Amino acid sequence: MEKLCVYLGPRLRRLRKNLGLTQADMASDLDVSPSYVALMEGNQRPVTAEILLRLAKIYKLDMSLFADDGTPEILARLQSTMKDPIFSGIEISPLEVADVLSSFPGFAEAMLRLYTSYKEEQIVLADQRQAALDGGIDEGADPVAGVRRFLAARRNCFPGLDVAAEKLAAAVKEAGGLPFYLMQRHNLRVRRLPTEIMSGSVRRLDRHRHEVLLDDCLDLASQNFQLAQQLAYLESEGDIQKFVQEGNLATESGRRLAYRALAGYFAAAVVMPYTQFAKAVEARRYDVEALSRQFGTSFEQTAHRLTTLQKPGQERIPFFFIRVDSAGNVSKRLDSANFPFARHGGGCPLWTLHQVFTTPRTVVTQWLELPDGQLFFSIARTVSSGGGAFGLPRVDRAVALVCEASHVERLVYHKDNTSVVPTPIGITCRLCQRDSCTSRSEPPIGRQILPDHYRRTDAPFGFSD
Q1: DSSP labels for 388-400?
Q2: Going by C-beta distance under 8 Å and a sequence separation of 6 or more, which residues neighbour residue 337?
Q3: How far is CA 79 from CA 2, 69, 97, 117, 300, in A?
Q4: Maximum distance among all alpha carbons in the chain?
């Protein structure tokens, strides 16, 4: 048995820290020297079968704890990080990246934290620059803007939550469904009650009666999502809180919004487990409606989940997601596609996202061309919330998924758009220099408006060269 040995440095160090032990403490427990513990943690010495057995016996551990430390995932994240243009000109091979992770796991973790902070600061600076151009307010203290930056810096992907949710999804399936799992695991009965009794709530946890109460007007997709989100609060509070703390959000409201966003992320990952969903999207060629039917989810839930599929090593098409009401107000925005959507001011009226209200529940596709020539592909449709019974208010919104042109051939929607001319749109009127746009509502910054004493253009404003 002594011949069996493995290198478990990062896992061993994490275990020791979680137990609140020093290297000397662990060395004493294992009857080895502190220097030997340090060498094992630094992957300079292997962890033998005998040491593994001592660890399991002394600390009452499940041996499966050492089965996977996420090293492949961390390696994929590091390799992805090194592809950032900021590192262009520096030749670092994948083998060198693997060597860094193996030999200096602490440095690798520090590198990932630093890179994430760098991306966050990039987004903050971009927001500040655009706010200055637009004459808008400083979003530094805006909790919604803070959470959007927090999600965007991580490409709206949290692999740790996906792994935990996937395990929970398997347990839920074995139990026979979410209501059965809640009863078996938490002694909570699921009850559906009339809207008037719920008093404005769609979900409520009644610990006194050991019940999870749901509004009986919720459709099945919403019921499942609410139950999965309740499980996020019951079982993954620590994991979610850890990510929220890493965000360094400025306000308590921001931290609460981030917590709620990650609980929603976890819920989506339970009803649409990453591995299964990632395989399905390729098989279905990103057909949102077909995926909704397969997983028993709504169009919006499915579209939202598509933005999260950036797990290192299992990436899918990166999408930009947006939800607006009929007045153009943005209520949700998630970005993993580098789509330069305006963070200030209104959007472009030429984008069909703002026109799909005239064709409810019909998917509308569109090629988009930005002023700098970038091409994107848009999938838009209306979605509804509320209602469920006569007289209850219903809210209609529009959602859109946008991806870069390089990915479009993988989409089922592409086959009907091979010969369509792209629509020239702008990020926002004040940043768009297209002088012939008849849909313009404001003149662009930095252009002198011409008088119309002798000539009136088709466009609302005429500009100097």
Answers
A1: SSTT--EEEEEEE
A2: 318, 319, 320, 376, 402, 403, 404
A3: 35, 17, 7, 17, 32
A4: 95
- 379: helix, strand or coil: strand
193-207 pLDDT per residue, tens: 999 999 889 999 999
pLDDT of residue 133: 47
Q: What is the mean pLDDT of the chain?
A: 84
Give me the amino acid identity at 257.
L
Q: How far is CA 267 from CA 198, 291, 398, in A?
A: 22, 17, 22
**Domain residues for 48?**
5-69
Task: State the average pLDDT over residues 402-423.
Answer: 83
Do residue 120 and residue 164 come from a single domain? Answer: no
Q: What is the C-alpha to C-alpha distance for residues 85 and 70, in angstroms, rounded to an integer?
A: 26
46-62 burial, b if ≥16 CB within 10 A, otherwise e? Answer: ebbeebbeebeeebeee
Q: pLDDT over 70 for what percent of the chain?
A: 83
Is the confidence at residue 187, as pLDDT, over 90? yes
Q: Which residues pair with 380 in a beta bridge?
A: 364, 400
Look at the chain and count its residues: 465
Task: Identify whether 21 is part of a domain.
Answer: yes
440 in Cβ contact with 459 (< 8 Å): yes
- Residues 127-137 have pLDDT tens digits of 665 555 444 54
- What kind and span of H or E run contains 192? strand 189-193
- Examine residue 157 and state whether it is found in any structural domain, yes or no: yes
d(CA 173, CA 175): 5
